[in-house]
Structure formats: structure tokens, C-alpha cells
Amino acid sequence: MVIQSLGSIGIGTIAAAYFIGKILGWMITHYQQPVQRWVFKTEGAATEKVES
User: Fold this and answer.
1) Average pLDDT of the residues of the chain
2) What's the number of CA atoms in the CB half-sphere (13 Å) around residue 17?
């Protein structure tokens, strides 16, 4: 009965959401520091040009 009330959400949608969450969780742990260094380096360079 609960499954019927979900409408067009099927097992594939639930499985995709689960695996996307797992993949993103893995990527965040491995790529968080390089991305932060890249973002803050770019942000710092942009503010230096504006101040000059």
C-alpha cells in the first residue's frame, strides 16, 4: 500500500538515489581538499586584482 502511494517512484529511482549518495560521499572525502584549494586560490587572485 505504501508503494502505491509513491506514484512514479520505483525501485530504480530509489536505487539510483542510494548509489548516487554513495558515490558523492566517496568523491567528497577524496576531492574536498583539492577543490577547496582551487576555489580559495581563484577567489584570492580575483580579490587581489580588484584591490590593485
Assistant:
1) 79
2) 6
